[in-house]
Amino acid sequence: MRSITSFLVLLVTLMGVAACTDTARTSYLDLQGRVFIFNPRLATATYVVTLTVRKEPPAGSKAVAVFDNPAGGDPLTSEQKVRAGQTRVDFESDPLQCVAKGKTYHFTVTLYDADGKELQVVKSEITSTLDQSILPPAPLVVGPAYDKNPALDDTTAKDALRAREKCPA
């Protein structure tokens, strides 16, 4: 009786290990990092998401990232091909508006094969530790010599500040 019980425990354990191994074999991408980048020199805030390629996807695959839009409206989308030998996939969004401190924003990265068949979905979220109000209303400098941006002194800066006032709460 004791050997049958031991056999059943071993069998259940092996089935659990096999299930974990099977999941690992189907995972192409692992989320490595996610962060907001605030660049005061350029007066921009962007999402940056990095994924590690665990298993090389089929030739012709592409990854598509969809981010919440902090300003409201349509989600922000970015896509890129995943090439043979690539070890990571990086996404950086276009400059954002209305990023709020402490607010959580969601994103999804979907991996598709060359025929458009969904291979994997990675869902996660980013919470900003800063508010976009820390950024200047326009880039601080312009040109290769880093000259002071004249737009900081005129209506361009005022328009940018007014746009921030219209951000959703």
Structure characteristics:
2 helices, four-stranded antiparallel sheet, three-stranded antiparallel sheet, alpha+beta, 2 domains, 169 residues
Structure explained in plain terms:
- The protein has 169 residues and is an alpha+beta fold.
- It folds into two domains: 28-131, Immunoglobulins (Immunoglobulin-like, Sandwich), CATH 2.60.40.10; 136-169, no CATH class.
- The protein has two helices and nine strands.
- The strands form three sheets. A four-stranded antiparallel sheet has the order 4-3-6-7, with no helix packed on it. A three-stranded antiparallel sheet has the order 1-2-5, with no helix packed on it.
- Strand 1 (29-39) and strand 2 form a beta hairpin.
- The radius of gyration is 23 Å and the shape is elongated.
Topology of this structure?
Layout lengths: L1 H25 L2 E11 L4 E10 L8 E6 L8 E6 L6 E5 L11 E9 L5 E10 L13 E2 L4 E2 L6 H11 L4
Antiparallel strand pairs: 1-2, 2-5, 3-4, 3-6, 6-7, 8-9
